[in-house]
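quick one
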Amino acid sequence: MDKLQLIPYSNEVRMLPGSIPLSKIGRRSFFSTIDRNTGNPESYYLSISENGIKIVAGGEAGRYYAAQTLKQISETYPDRLPFLEIRDKPAFPYRGFMLDSVRHMTPIEDIKKLIDAAALLKLNKFHWHLTDDQGWRIEIDSYPLLNEVASYRNGSHFGKVHDDRIYGGYYTKREMREIADYCADRHIDVIPEIDMPGHMVAAIAAYPEISCRGEEIPVETRQGIFPDILCAGNPKTLQMIFDILDEVIRIFPCKYIHIGGDEAPKKRWKECRHCQELIRELGLETEEELQGWFMNRVAEFLQSRGRKAITWNESLNSGLLNKDIIVQMWMDRKKLSVDFANSGGNIIVSPFYHYYLDYPYGMTPLNKTYKFDPILKGLDNQGAGNVAGVETPVWTEHIRDFNQLCFMAFPRAAAVAEAGWTFEENRDVDDFNVRLQALIPRLRSLGIKPAPEKDWNPNPFRRLIQTIRFFLSITTKEMIKGYD
Ligand code: ACM
Ligand code: ZN
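structure w/ acetamide:
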């Protein structure tokens, strides 16, 4: 075997002649230390020589990644470890995966399996999508109806799939702290998302006064983009968001909180006396600017609590988003995310057409996901330096159980993980496909069943059929026409 079966591949690997039997490596031939002078806590140096194993890491995370690499090497060389030297550090500091726990909830024990897989792949951010139109999944004490009402929906009508049963539940604070601890042990930050001002139907169903019309509406059972959003002109709305975020912060110790900001139609704001008054008072011109103002207030609140906000790219439409908010690019035809990065803002790259794992392999084959370069076209030198990293989301309208989730997410998540860790000049799609053979049993041993190889890169005919079938199954007339 001439190349190590590592995923993600390490950035500087030097194979040396010779090997050492595993039986000869004991405590005295295993040396591990931390040298913080390297400046990157995720970096590490690993050597295997006749003296044994030596690890010098830039921090605890680097030491953890060195151990992950060593584990992968020892699996392919179970008897004798080859002599080598690896100097490794990630291409990007932000390497995330996102799970939508609203449309369908993944049990805590299964989430832990995903976290184990993420740790193996040197991913370091778990973005947890916890609120949306179809449910509220986070326990909040100060507004009890969020769990009594907003956590349950009266059926699930996603595309052409219908289920009349009540669906719901939420993760308790104890469970979420357990996940936060589980992640921390694996050098993964949890980034909880409270999506606002759109995708708030469930919360509005519990507390109608935070919407512009104040009307009672049910928790949404359909998928799509819905007109009832938070009323920015009602001071109670921001107060409620601040109270909720204060509780979120006490559950999750990590630096980042995602505040959504995607797909918020402005129909209600245009008709709302309070929102229009606020626009005039603030000297703003448009409802999009009002969204920018709203996101900025929430981000400033988080900053006052020592946290940092992330939003989806639509919040850039305001033209006035604070530069210290991190923008997650998923669908941005106007390239506002590129401009944001070129002018000093940080971005996370999650293009839906390449990195969304809920789309069928026919639409997003493994190799297409792999080949995507996170340094977006149009970025200048400064902009390229402002790419914080990559994230691969799994939305779950059409994913109802864990096996289906694993089929969709793996091995494509590994392709994104490699884009996050391995520098572009060290990436190669054919080589990745070879190395994947060693990853599959590793994933299986964690309780994850990846898609079989025959499904990874369908031929053009199967791609077309799968894509058409998918869109036919998810699309309804209502979705195309828009909801009102
Ligand atoms: C998104 O996919 N609505 C961020
Ligand atoms: Zn309003």
